[in-house]
Amino acid sequence: GQNIDQPTEMTATEGAIVQINCTYQTSGFNGLFWYQQHAGEAPTFLSYNVLDGLEEKGRFSSFLSRSKGYSYLLLKELQMKDSASYLCAVMDSNYQLIWGAGTKLIIKP
Amino acid sequence: IAGITQAPTSQILAAGRRMTLRCTQDMRHNAMYWYRQDLGLGLRLIHYSNTAGTTGKGEVPDGYSVSRANTDDFPLTLASAVPSQTSVYFCASSDGLANTGELFFGEGSRLTVL
Fold it and tell me: Do the Cβ atoms of A97 and B45 come within 8 Å?
């Protein structure tokens, strides 16, 4: 079956750096996505990786290794507003998105 | 700019009742989707539509139906609601997942079936 694994919850300190990991086993691969979802709100798009390597976008970076079935989202200079759930999703060979359960990130002052 | 609008935002209904969740987008996206989100689980696709006039089944389609009469609207109907359909429902659209992968989500409809 298809599976996306990410930690359920992480805690970090304001101003610090945190890395959220995502491992996947899917039928084919057509890209990996990270979304941010604040409590009670809709998910919003953060990043899209289809080739191996690091994609940087401001304080957020996303890394992909297709051979390892692995990605991470790196958040730098953490702010209180970064407290949210971070969803990892993989597009399979049928161009359907398979979603992880999300990682709840708690930022402490 | 509205983006995607869902209605109602919240609803409580009795088991066995019929319910339609409405979804409208103004971005002229071809593809639209309905997901449900339950605690501890990832978003699960219920139904999708790649273009007006076509629909397809997702991962958890049983008990739900959709229609896509035009580009903008994509209603989701529960013919006879059951308590296991208690969830938060998100409608989403995209301009082609194969291009950028970006889905635009509505604010969600929280449904409680008693």
Answer: yes
